[in-house]
């Protein structure tokens, strides 16, 4: 685990000393946008046009943020327009690596870097910006034409996928409808701070106080969501929205990883009747099971975070999502 400093790779774990033991996630730095041809302005440096075959998505099958992007490829039927490949689940001193390894072959997503044959994800960041300083994270939405990163922010990538390619695919499903924008943003904000990022705040805390400060709001929000789902299949009623999918990628990892490895252990998701029903409902959406790789998920967290799990032993259970 490390980061790039002025384009050079430096191996170091998250520094929580300056923040009283709290984990503070850094902001993504590539925040460009893909627009449909009708809205694309060539003279705007942050604009990229929606063109079939032009973009590549680099993901980790273990990572909940990258998982969102993969899910939107499926929901919006973008498989034939955007190519995808994945990193190896082990994120060690070189950060995310591209290597093929039969043990971790996924049935649907190829491993490696088909564009440049790079060994490390940090080489993509240096290619995009030779003086880049910051973390090397996935997902990475890459432009094959100008050889740069369009976006490394999953929240933006799923909104790009929600709209930009509709004219090409004919898929007009809308997971961020105009009349719900404010309500979705408000709920996303709570779920991001206390659940999606909340589990990381628990897991990467380096003081008892910082851990407990993250744990309590995490379970407050899970209790609140359990209540909200009492009479409703999804967070905003009958229709799925992006809020559901942003929550899904954390919930599906919870009992297998966050409960044990990140010490988020007041309750499991299976202990919440509405949340577990909701998780199964989302999981059973067409093409979604193909996006969930429990082997990568468990291996990545338990094997990569040796400050938390120095033995690198990967627990055997649970070996299904809902048990
Ligand atoms: N805000 C980013 C966060 C992405 C992120 O932190 N991804 C993790 C994997 S789960 C990562 O690549 N971490 C590497 C690092 O922090 O060095 C997003 O949502 O896209």
TrEMBL record:
Glutathione binds at residues 96, 135-138, 153-154. It comes from Marinomonas transparens. The active site is at residues 63, 200. SUPFAM superfamilies: GST C-terminal domain-like, Thioredoxin-like. This is Glutathione S-transferase family protein. One of its GO terms (molecular function) is glutathione transferase activity. The record marks 258, 301 as: Lowers pKa of active site Cys. One of its GO terms (cellular component) is cytoplasm.
